[in-house]
Write a structure and sequence with these properties.
Blueprint: E1 16-19, E2 22-27, E3 30-35, E4 46-48, H1 56-67, E5 74-76, H2 88-95, E6 99-101, H3 106-109, H4 126-129, E7 145-147, E8 160-164, E9 173-177, E10 182-186, H5 197-202, H6 219-231, E11 236-239, E12 245-246, H7 247-259, H8 261-264, E13 278-280, E14 283-286, H9 296-312
Parallel strand pairs: 4-5, 5-6, 6-7, 10-11
Antiparallel strand pairs: 1-2, 2-3, 3-4, 8-9, 9-10, 11-12, 13-14
Length: 316
């Protein structure tokens, strides 16, 4: 029996309730989440992550259907990669709300630093081969950017706390609510093989998988993060890619990934496998040189077309 919360077509312009106060918004190859009970008023709900470029229409429609004309308290980011901040700047300005992220992610949403280059040597799928064409930022929301509180609380999300889960991004965080063991995992792990364009678009297979490999730039930190989340024993995992999952099979699969991470998740070769990228509060500090890769020009050209197509598919 599948442990997926729901089966949905790729790019479906609909939302799906995961709990009385959490709604999943699928956006082409990525997910966003609305947190707050249906009918909540101004300042009583939040948006978690902001999708791909051109995702604004789908997010607005889902928010309007759930909350009417009310504005959120804030936008919360699990991290600042391009597929999680696609309409961040426009929505933050339109709603006139702050954007909260871990301090190590702030340089990537305030225009100060770009992420290191992605790694086309990993993954073995079209998304990996063509990742050179994907944006690596930064975006700039200016003074709207705020650090998440040091005490672990999440603004606008009472009862939740943030968990630092670096590896896929230096300041990556997951969000967890102990009362019902609900986990918003971001990309610390996902539930489809994101390196494959087909899997990214169809969200198949539906199983616990490593973080998207082409943008993961510290594999040992990523392993520690998966193990930390496995110890939380989540009942529901709402991930940045794929279909949210729940129940004992979710926990069993997450345990297996945590236990066997070096064997099943870490690529055999890759730019960041032996040496991670380095970051500080200013952004990217250093990263290792690229590997020698075949068909780089072809991959870059194909990647541009794939990226543009996926950014527009099913979003407006």
């Amino acid at each position: 029996m599948s442990t997926a919360v729901a089966d949905r077509p790729a790019g479906a312009d609909t939302a799906h309730a995961l709990a009385h106060d959490v709604e999943w918004v699928p956006l082409s190859i990525v997910n966003a989440y609305l947190v707050g009970p249906r009918g909540a008023g101004d300042g009583e709900w939040v948006l978690v992550d902001a999708g791909m470029p051109f995702s604004g229409g789908a997010i607005r429609r889902a928010a309007a259907a759930r909350y009417g004309n009310s504005r959120p308290k804030a936008i919360i980011l699990t991290h600042g990669h391009f597929d999680h901040v696609g309409v961040l700047k426009e929505l933050a300005a339109e709603w006139d709300v702050p954007v909260y992220a871990h301090p190590l992610e702030l340089p990537f949403i305030t225009g100060r630093s770009s992420y290191p280059p992605p790694d086309p040597a990993v993954g073995g799928g079209m998304m990996a081969y063509t990742c050179r064409a994907l944006p690596r930022g930064p975006v700039n929301v200016g003074q709207r950017a705020r650090p998440l509180p040091n005490d672990g609380t999440v603004p606008g999300m009472p009862g939740w706390h943030w968990v630092r889960t670096p590896g896929h991004a230096p300041g990556h965080v997951a969000l967890f609510r102990e009362t019902d063991q609900f986990l918003i995992a971001g990309d610390a792990f996902v539930t489809t093989k994101q390196e494959s364009a087909v899997s990214a678009l169809t969200r198949v297979p539906q199983k616990v998988c490593r973080p998207p490999a082409y943008f993961t730039q510290d594999w040992q930190a990523a392993k520690a993060s998966v193990r930390a989340l496995a110890r939380l024993r989540p009942e529901v995992a709402a991930t940045g890619h794929g279909v949210p999952m729940r129940g004992q099979e979710l926990r069993d699969q997450l345990d297996a990934l945590a236990h066997d991470f070096d064997r099943v998740a870490v690529p055999s070769v890759g730019r960041y496998v032996s040496e991670p990228a380095r970051f500080d509060e200013r952004g990217t500090v250093s990263y290792p040189p690229p590997l020698v890769e075949p068909f780089v020009g072809l991959a870059a050209g194909l990647g541009l077309g794939v990226a543009v197509g996926m950014m527009t598919a099913g979003s407006e």
